[in-house]
Amino acid sequence: MAQERVQKILSQAGITSRRQAEQLILQGAITVNGNVIALGAHAEWGKDAIKINGKLLQYDEERLYLLFYKPKNVLSVFTDPYQRLTLKDYLRPLKKHLYPIGRLDFTSEGLLFLTNDGDFGEKLQKKEGGENPRKNKEIQKGRAKRKENKTS
């Protein structure tokens, strides 16, 4: 396995998002081989000793791919400040750091794909050519009106 940025390793391990990992690094909470690291530091997961607040990040080569039927009124995330039901409430017994590929609305139900394989998850969410298909688009009700190009 090649060296990668530590925040990417933490994200792929399902520990935290890359942005939150950057905050932990800036706070001095992350060490690699006993040294507090700076933002942009690289490490090799499974070879270097990466610790978060003194706790060793365990290297787990086992990849998990899970299909989960999300019921209505459950959030497609693992934490909620308002204490609503989340995926964590259903998947806690697995004791794995998983993240969903895609999302469903709170009031929607349907099949979600979850994994702890960050590289595979990224590949699923990107189109050929590296473009990310997840873009916010505004949808308006009703019929689209055609703009006429008038020339005088």
Please characterize this protein's 3D structure.
The protein has helices at 6-12, 18-26, 87-91, 118-125; strands at residues 4-5, 30-32, 35-36, 42-43, 50-52, 55-56, 65-70, 99-101, 110-115. The chain is α+β, with helices and mostly antiparallel strands. The protein folds into two domains: 4-56, Structural Genomics Hypothetical 15.5 Kd Protein In mrcA-pckA Intergenic Region, Chain A (Roll); 65-125, Pseudouridine synthase I, catalytic domain, N-terminal subdomain (Alpha-Beta Plaits, 2-Layer Sandwich), CATH 3.30.70.580. The protein has a four-stranded antiparallel sheet, with no helix packed on it. It has a three-stranded antiparallel sheet with strand order 7-9-8, with helices on one face. A two-stranded antiparallel sheet has the order 1-4.
Count of alpha/pi helices: 4
Number of domains: 2
The CATH architecture category of the largest domain equals 2-Layer Sandwich
Quickly give the structural class. alpha+beta
Mean pLDDT: 83
Query: Care to count the β-strands?
Result: 9
Instruction: Give the C-alpha Rg.
Output: 20 Å
CATH fold field value of the largest domain? Alpha-Beta Plaits
Reading side by side through the largest sheet, how are the strands ordered?
3-2-5-6
Query: Helicity range of the residues?
Result: 10-25%
**Ends: how far apart?**
66 Å
- Give the biggest sheet: 4 strands, antiparallel
Spans of at least 5 consecutive residues whose pLDDT stays below 50 are 135-139
